[in-house]
Amino acid sequence: MNIKVQTNYEEMSKVTAEFIINYVNHKPDSLLCLAGGHTPLRTFDYLIEAAINRQVDFSECKFVGLDEWVGLGKSVKGSCQETLYTSLFDRISISEEQICFFNGLAEDTAVECKRVDHFIFENGKIDVILLGIGMNGHLGFNEPNVSPDLYSHVVGLDPVTKDVSSKYFEEEVNVKQGISLGIQHIVESDTVILIANGAKKADIVKQTVEGEKTVEVPSSLVQDLPNVHFFIDEEAASLLEKSDKE
């Protein structure tokens, strides 16, 4: 795991975007998986700025969604799909054909999982996957005690995830399940980027980096992979024994 500590959230977001931009410039037809949520939003701003300034071209890239709340669709503000479209996809020049996203309203979630898996396998594998870390260590909706051998799957949400879900929605939403790329997709990706910021994430960052590798903390399952880059700010890194500051 390659750990890089930045001064603050702004700098963390900037270097994360620069990493993705450099990757795409070297492999213009990359398959990208970018997490929703709050942590990546400033990174998206930098990606959009670079695209507008022609410092990167996403026209040959393909995008696959990381996860979605079961029962929610693109029309719900705060859904993963709505967040990605509003914060990124609608602001750069890409077509619908380039995007494969979980449909949280699908009647048959097993078929939906197979559809997304097929899209990934058809394109080889994910080149870059950008992941925020949940307070309980979840990656996407790979919740504590998830099997590490799964590809796309449906999962019951952990109480911690349910508790923090309210911050994403303008109105109260009762979410019980998520549909997500599995840990197997993550470990098979060419490059994994983890991001975390703020003092509230310091404990889970320490567990991820220096703790036992365990399914109880899903983010710890990637700590031995050579292709993992962890961008964090100083507050999130505050409990680490060793870290490199750039």
Overall description:
The chain has a single domain (2-239), classed as Rossmann fold (3-Layer(aba) Sandwich). Helices cover 30% and strands 18% of the residues. The chain is built from seven helices and eleven strands. The protein has helices at residues 9-26, 41-52, 80-87, 109-122, 159-164, 183-188, 202-210, and strands spanning 2-6, 31-34, 62-64, 67-69, 99-100, 128-132, 153-156, 177-180, 191-196, 228-233, 244-245. It has an eight-stranded parallel beta sheet with strand order 5-3-2-6-9-10-1-11. Strands 4-8-7 form a three-stranded antiparallel beta sheet, with helices on one face. Helix 2 links the parallel strand 2 and strand 3 (62-64). The radius of gyration is 17 Å and the shape is globular. The chain starts with a strand and ends with a strand.
Tally of alpha and pi helices:
7
Query: What form results from the Cα inertia axes?
Result: globular
Instruction: Round the mean pLDDT to the nearest integer and report it.
Output: 92
The total tally of domains equals 1
Q: Can you give the helix content as a percent range?
A: 25-40%
Q: Mind telling me the CATH class?
A: Alpha Beta
CATH architecture label: 3-Layer(aba) Sandwich
- CATH topology, which one? Rossmann fold
Strand order of the largest sheet: 5-3-2-6-9-10-1-11
- SSE string: EHEHEEHEHEEHEHEHEE
